[in-house]
Write the structure tokens for this entry.
Amino acid sequence: MNTARDRLGVVLPIVLTVLLILGVMAAAIHLLSRQSYRNLGRIDGFLRATAVGEACFTRILERLQAQPWENRWFATAPDLSTGTWEEGRYTYLLCDVSATRRLEADLLVRADVQESRVVMFWRLKADPYTLSPYRRVRTSFFTYQDPMTPMNTSAVGPLSTQVDAAITERNSNLPWEQTVEQQIQNNPQPDKIPTALNVPSPPPPLAVILPPVPTARADPIGPRVTNPEPTPPTLPNFPLPTTGPTPPPGYTQTLVTLADVRANLTVGRGKASKVGAYLSQAFGGQHGGTGGTAIEWESERNKLVRFTDSCCPSGIPTDTCSSSDQDVACKCYRPVRAMEVMKPRVDAVMYDGVRDCIAEIDRVAEEIDRACQPPGPTRGQAEALIQRGRESVGCADDLCGQARSLVSEMNGYLSQGNCPRSVTPANGMSCN
């Protein structure tokens, strides 16, 4: 009987533990499933709202091409209207771009489906090269906008200006695009496409960043192309050739700046090491690889402590020394002991500060070196590394200022009591 009870006492906790584990697993699966369904719901809502907005666009386009463009209903004032399609609802604002551009119109559409909202913008342009009053209307630009964009003319105005700038930029890039397209058509093999694009070889690992060298031939465009000097694109991270299609403005300067920052890291590391050697010489002790203890401040201070203790212990002169030594020792007694408070601050700068500064500089330098391995850093990566490098180099200058302050304070203590010493650390220190 006792055996059965013992077995029941063992089995029951096991069963309860298994049930608890299964319950936790079921709850976790339920939460994960709910999150997945929510994400799918957001995607489905976005696609449905996009479909409603495109339905609005199609209706407006059909209406525009069903009548002469000169008879458009929004010629005198912007048209702000609403409508429905399937389970969604849309609101649109349609107006001329400007009084002098009567063949162009801006269309801003906001589509709502349940809790999802999409705002889209079209730049419409009527065909100017036709004798028929029923002009063909085409889209010259399209973009999504912030779902909170207001549906009024004050919102369309700045947006229309941005679209004008984007279209101008796109048109200015067209000659370059046509030139590169012609080169790729002449060399359609995959291994020839980088040469046709005039992609530069990646820079070597950095000591100093070298300008990228193009891998294309000296005359990459060839005799068939009629435009040997195409307008450069303004795409970020475009490779940096020195011949052929020109890279975007600013990319070359970014690499040059990154090279300067990398060189400054080497200089900054030298500054930090110099600070360590300077403090090590002034205050004693060793700093890994930064130099010895030429002045040995600790030994100098200890000699002063022994001198004051023998001739003026606790600030009271004794008969063991001459009167002149007693006078000097008593004047020097308090300044020497006041220097005790400097030891933790010196150690914090000489050991922790210098060590952390050099470690951070080395870390950033290694990241730059890795980023410049093939295929090289993108413009965004280069700018981020430039910012980090500038921040890390500043620690060396901070340490230099702290070292100057500490040495000046130590000399002040020694001078306050006119303490005898064989060597005085120099206050001045160059951080260059």
Q: What stands out?
A: The first helix runs from residue 2 to 65. Confidence is low (pLDDT under 50) at residues 204-210, 213-249, 284-296. The radius of gyration is 38 Å. The first strand starts at residue 79 and ends at 85.
